[in-house]
Amino acid sequence: MNTIPFDPGCVPGPEMARLADPRTIGIAIKRAKRPILVVGAEILKDDLIDKAIEIGKKGTPIAATAHSMKTFVEKGYTDNVFMCNMHPLANNFTRNDWMGFDGKGNYDVIVFLGVTYYWSSQMMSAVKNFATNPLRMAVSIDRYYHPNAKMSFENIRDTEQFKSMVDEVIAQL
Amino acid sequence: MAKEGLFKIGGLENVQINIGKIVSEEDEWEPMGPVPCPEVEDMRHWYMKLLDRYPPFYAPYCDMCCLCTFGKCDLTGNKKGACGLDMRGQQARFVLIACCMGASAHCGHGRHMLHSLIDMFGADVPVDLGTQINVEAPIMRTVIGVKPKVLGDFAKAFDYVEEQIAQMMDATHTGQEGSYLDYEAKAYHVGMLDSLAKEASDMIQMIAFKYPMGADVPLVDIGVGCVDTDKPIILVIGHNVIPSVAIIDYLDEHDMRDLVEVAGICCTAIDNTRYDFKAKVVGAIGRQLRFVRSGVADVIVVDEQCIRADIVEQAQRVQAPLIATNNKALYGLPERSGDPAEEIIEDLASGKMAAVAILDPEKVAEVVPKLAMIMKNKRKNIRTLPSDAEQKEYAARCYDCGNCVLACPQGLPIDRAMQELAAGNPEPMSILFDKCVGCGRCEQVCKWEIPIVDVMQKTALKQVKSEKFKMRVGRGPVLDTEIRNVGAPLVLGTIPGVIAVVGCGNYPDGTEDVYKIAREFALRKYIVVATGCGAMDMALYRNEEGETIYEEFPGGFEAGGVVNIGSCVSNAHIHGAAIKVASIFARRNLRGNMDEIADYILNRVGAAGVAWGAMSQKAASIGTGVEVWGVPVVVGPHGAKYRHAHIGRKDDLTKWDVYNMRDGSKVRCEPAPEHLILGAETVEEAIPLLARLCMRPVDNPSGRQIKLTHYMDLSMKYLGAYHDDWPIFVRSETDLPLARKEEYLKVLEKDYGWKIDWDSKKILEGPLRKQDPQFDPTNLERLLKGAE
Asked: Are residue B415 and residue B500 in the same domain, yes or no?
């Protein structure tokens, strides 16, 4: 397996993401008490929005960052989709007193899909370094190896392979 | 008081008396405020107020610290290193280091120019900005309490900044500061210093070279296609205009100006056009490697900042002699200022030497034009881009390893484009040209040594050659008369805001984004100001009528104006405009009064900066310097690599309490502006965010209505929805967008539980506060009535 970060210079330090298969990641999300899916601008590529909606329909709330909300609206799915900016959102993940979008508390497993690589990498870095007590976990199901996540896919060039991996995650939920 | 003149000292022989400078009493043009020439502790109360409301959020770029021999230390999870500093502290320390680097670049540039200009013109050149500017140096007046009268007076600004930067850099040494908040406070201090250094740097070149000012400055040529390749071409790169001006003067004096092209990249290009309207602008930093590689330039002259570190190698590759003219960037070259010009020309023209350093601008001017004439002839048969056959061969070499994609800062699909090119379709590769930031990292990792930058440029050659646009000359400071016209509408909100497009060219999706941002806000009658790369890049597009943004919109500081302020150092005039609103419109004293003026701007002047392609340490100090004066900043997604953001918490309303100066009461306000610096992933996200950040507590109903209308409209246009917290900005029904007032009242009643009187269509219950025309907001206790 290829463990080079998608941006090879993005080697943060001794703690780097564990490469995980879709099933393992899916189970981790399933077992989470309060998971959340964070999507960004790349959700608009390769029909990933449909995958996000499937995850949303299985009960995981969606934080729609960048301008991804527009496509959720166009797709007619906004039930548990919350429009927000990434920086304040990531800031909230590092705080114990944030009560989440539903007022019931912060989230424990933060799943990233469809976000510009270097942008989400930084946000996962914030989670890794400062959302530690209690531990909140950043998980990437994007097509890149994200060393700042706790668990990540490898770098995947083939779009169909990537989509089938996301499908496998969804199958576990 | 000491007087200037002759004096005698009786009885003393063989005594040497050295007089450094005569200190004469300053005019009492304004009473001195509480914080002239502040040390960090003098302004710490203001910095900490900002940090309390906008606490730092950290996204570490590296989990290690490698700065001392205790290390490497692993700080993951906010652990402490061997020195005791934790991850937060380390991130803030890096923010401070970056700001010190940026401010040093601006200050060093200014100091260097001041020496040169005093050599050229003497120290007594008067500060004469014409009849429409009285407040000539608003930052200098405010921060150090000095009103400069002559060129030499600007040394006081540089003296102060240099001393302060040394103190702040000192704090980053191992075993110094231990609090992340105090590192951040120091970074704010350096941001403030940066703004002062920039103002002084731009002022001195303006008054010495008599740059044009005001809205009616001419349009000049920008774009690769504007450069006349039939003439010898001198390419200047960097940010220090002194050697370029010397070259232009030489060409004029020797009747050669129309025979030779002087084309520029980066801020030297902008400043050249302020001196000589015939100078051409190739473009911003993203065009550097690619234009050099095109081989069009016959001689390359570099000065300082944002120059590629391998520029000598790149120039050699296209057989263009290079001359380094600034001691900050010498590239290991021999310094030849003392040698005869003819000898240097012979060495470079013959190829005996590929590059030299010449630090004397006069000698540069003597060498470069003649050298360009010779090289034009010698280089006429040089071909630098691949031939069609070579292009095919290069594309065929690619075996699709994908290393180029991994190396690309943008992750561009170069691999797929190369495969398409090999199959005979150049279009995908040519599309990447504008999205490419021109760094060349892809070539570094290509195992088959494909010159990817050249291959890409070749596919886009037609497009590149057709790049012929117009940019309005950088016009320097906003006139006092303009401030008189817009001061009230800006503070009341009826001009919805000032959008400042600044910074470098590390854009996430190409140069067009800055054009989109600028045009969207200009069409909505915001005042759009621009400097540096942003000012250049936004000129590279046309509207449906074929007009560039500078042709479509007026150049005045007015609603719907698109104002090219100038180069990076001209940035200071944007802060200066906000300060002038406080001075000219509100009659606040500036002198030694920075906290009050920044507080005024934070609460009243609806402005937001966007550094969409922020890349450098200068961009870090610029952004921090904008923040500290009370203006929020949005950066592009690469900006997350600066490691921090300053995020307001709308869910903690206690942070938004503001004093009413009239009676000392505390007023719980809406979060306006909500953040001081944060990033956005896409331009579609950034645009509504900028509109949101232009709201201020003091907006009157008409102003808030206009701002809210734009914010809601832009949210719907780009995001397809409103942020669910929009009612927080509604103080009464008069704040609501007029065209949809009834619709919004229904939403407020149904979804937010507000009480509405439907007969009068008035809000009875719901808003956080009522709009109060008497509200005079401040965050400073010392400004309250009766305060000491």
From this structure: no
